[in-house]
Write a structure and sequence with these properties.
single chain; mainly alpha; Four Helix Bundle (Hemerythrin (Met), subunit A); globular
Length: 143
């Protein structure tokens, strides 16, 4: 389902976190994306509260990029309906963040943070070995 985790990791690296990416497992890379997205949303919320428009826009933009990395890392062929549903959810989250930026809406940032937190908690409950096994199977299929 997350066959393109390296792409997602690149999105994460592009927003300033490079430490440990090269050695991270596919499971850990996705965790890092979730963590980075949540950090950016928390910072964006603070910027909204301070009415710091520049920081708000920058942090929301980075969160949108991270969610884009999660979205691009999905493998619809292997992940099936779950991957399709996640793709739709990520697209929704990106739209809500665009609206949050335009409207300076803390509520919309909080909504997306809640969704991202729920996804992270679910992802954290998955055994890293299962993700590695799925990624290995995907590599074998493309070879």
């Amino acid at each position: 389902m997350y066959a393109n985790a390296a792409f997602g990791a690149q999105q994460y690296a592009n927003v300033g976190v490079r430490s440990g990416i090269e050695d991270a497992s596919p499971h850990r890379l996705i965790q890092m994306l979730f963590e980075g997205g949540l950090q950016r949303l928390a910072t964006a919320k603070g910027a909204l509260q301070r009415e710091d428009r520049a920081a708000k826009g920058e942090q929301i933009g980075k969160a949108i990029g991270i969610i884009g990395g999660l979205r691009e890392s999905l493998n619809v062929e292997q992940g099936g309906e779950l991957a399709v549903n996640l793709e739709s959810l990520y697209a929704y989250m990106q739209r809500r963040l665009l609206e949050a930026n335009i409207e300076s809406s803390i509520e919309k940032v909080e909504e997306v943070a809640g969704l991202l937190r729920d996804l992270k908690e679910a992802w954290d409950g998955i055994s890293p070995e299962k993700v590695t096994d799925a990624a290995d199977a995907d590599v074998r299929q493309t070879a």
